[in-house]
Amino acid sequence: SGNYLFVSNFLEYRTNLTKNADLLALNLHTNIEHLHLLSKHANVWDGPISLSLYVKGGRGSDDIDYASIWLRCNRKLFRMLNVHLVISMKAYQASITNHHNAHSVK
């Protein structure tokens, strides 16, 4: 429970082959540990996929970087994919603080 930050359409992929994209979409949600399972859904579903990716913990920015790279490397699996981020506010604030502290000059 708590407050969350929602980033809509963090990543979007669309091929020219996408037909009837507005009719029906597969809506999924997962966390970074299970992101690899998305490829199994893409193998059996050739329509649009909307994915909400839950990011938690103090390594939130690392998880977002990993997800971005994984999704880019596997984008050919998807005809149409929209990825939305759901980030706990605590994780977001911790990642901002850690990022700022890592780059501060002493």
Oligomer state of the chains in this structure: single chain
Secondary-structure-based class equals alpha/beta
**Percent range for β-strand residues:** 25-35%
| Largest sheet descriptor | 4 strands, mixed
Give the spatial strand order of the biggest sheet: 1-4-3-2
- Detail the poorly predicted runs: none
Instruction: Report the count of strand segments.
Output: 4
Give the arrangement of secondary structure elements.
Elements: E1 4-14, E2 26-31, H1 38-44, E3 49-55, H2 60-73, E4 80-88, H3 89-102
Parallel strand pairs: 2-3, 3-4
Antiparallel strand pairs: 1-4
Describe the model.
The protein is of the alpha/beta class and 106 residues long. The protein has 3 helices and 4 strands; from the N terminus they run ββαβαβα. It has a 4-stranded mixed β-sheet with strand order 1-4-3-2. Helix 1 (38-44) links the parallel strand 2 (26-31) and strand 3. It is elongated, with a radius of gyration of 16 Å.
Features:
106 residues; alpha/beta; 4-stranded mixed sheet
Give a brief outline of the structure.
This protein has 106 residues and is an alpha/beta fold. It has 3 helices and 4 strands; from the N terminus they run E-E-H-E-H-E-H. It has a 4-stranded mixed sheet.
